[in-house]
Design a protein that fits this description.
The chain has 15 helices and 8 strands. The protein is an alpha/beta fold. The protein folds into 3 domains: about 80 residues, Multidrug-efflux Transporter Regulator, Chain: A, Domain 2, CATH 1.10.1660.10; about 70 residues, Methyltransferase, Methionine Synthase (B12-binding Domains), Chain A, domain 1; about 120 residues, Rossmann fold (3-Layer(aba) Sandwich). Strand 2 and strand 3 form a beta hairpin. The radius of gyration is 21 Å and the shape is globular.
């Protein structure tokens, strides 16, 4: 069962709310599902910037129509083009064409984060990411900020003195940050969890935790095992957790000859994620076709695959 996204959703919604739904109005949880913008972000856009003004029932429940949904899609288009959310309202109200903005706010945020990482400034890193997470959907934060940041830092760390120090600092913070978010989300959710397993040779895989966070943000309970487990115990973990699906994250090549033995006893959908997916893409799509396996190279494609297969 998914978490209710409206603070009053568990109460008696009343005749006015039911009548509005019959007339085609949408509750905030449905708008969040259609647009990918969670209810917390929608409320923030309304309170801080007046970007969206939903209809309110006498009891205060937010209701949206098709025009609201279209406006949200326009907001997302501007955001993805690099416009700061605080500057979007005048563009919407004057029906400005969707030209490229003069400045890229995402680039500015990434630059600030790189500087904070190089200074090992944990509080600053946390504040910068918190600001983004408060104003933008998880998918957008991942696509526009965190994944490009990781890619930019990987280039910086090539032969750079202090690279390992910065890497361990950032990856440790990232695991702590998103692990905490997932933990608190899990306390509010019910149902079978998605099981994510780090099948890599190294720990602290940042994209594993981003994948877990995106799934958790979609109101899916998540269990993360941040280290490989013996092949014979993977099916045991799935059985004991009653897992709805498995994401096997690997940043290195997998022994494909052992893969059927590893996965054959698992009776739920499996996604192999990480660089291993691109390394073995052709063979994964043919050589292990007897297993319910799909592949995804990064957190965004993993999220799409999990959604497509209705795992989350």
């Amino acid at each position: 069962m998914k978490r209710e996204t409206d603070s009053s959703a568990s109460e008696d919604l009343g005749a006015d709310f039911a009548k509005a739904l019959e007339q085609g109005w949408l509750p905030i949880r449905e708008v969040a599902r259609q647009t990918g913008v969670n209810a917390i972000t929608l409320r923030a856009w309304e309170r801080r910037y007046g970007l969206i003004v939903p209809h309110r029932t006498p009891k205060g429940h937010r209701l949206f129509n098709a025009e609201h949904v279209q406006r949200i899609q326009s907001i997302l288009t501007w955001i993805n083009r690099g416009m700061a959310v605080s500057k979007i309202k005048p563009l919407l109200d004057t029906a400005q064409p969707l030209a490229e903005p003069l400045e890229d706010d995402w680039q500015r945020q990434r630059h600030a984060l790189v500087l904070a990482v190089t200074q090992l400034a944990e509080r600053q890193v946390d504040e910068l990411v918190n600001q983004a997470m408060a104003l933008y959907p998880p998918w957008t934060v991942c696509e526009q900020l965190l994944l490009p940041l990781l890619a930019q830092l990987q280039v910086r760390w090539q032969g750079q003195f202090g690279a390992q120090l910065e890497r361990v600092f950032l990856y440790s913070w990232l695991r702590s940050k998103f692990g905490s978010r997932i933990y608190h989300n899990n306390r509010q959710l019910r149902g079978a969890p998605l099981l994510l397993i780090n099948h890599s040779d190294v720990g602290l895989e940042p994209q594993l935790w981003l994948t877990a966070w995106l799934a958790s943000s979609a109101d899916c309970p998540v269990e993360v095992f941040d280290a490989p487990i013996p092949p014979g115990e993977l099916a045991l973990a799935v059985e004991r957790l009653n897992a709805r699906g498995v994401v096997l994250y690997a940043s290195n090549a997998i022994n494909l000859s052992q893969l059927p033995k590893l996965l054959s006893a698992i009776d739920c959908p499996i996604v192999i994620a990480g660089p291993a997916a691109s390394i073995h893409q052709a063979r994964l799509s043919t050589g292990v076709s007897m297993i319910d396996v799909s592949w995804a190279e990064d957190p965004l494609s993993a999220h799409r695959e999990l959604s497509r297969r209705e795992i989350i």
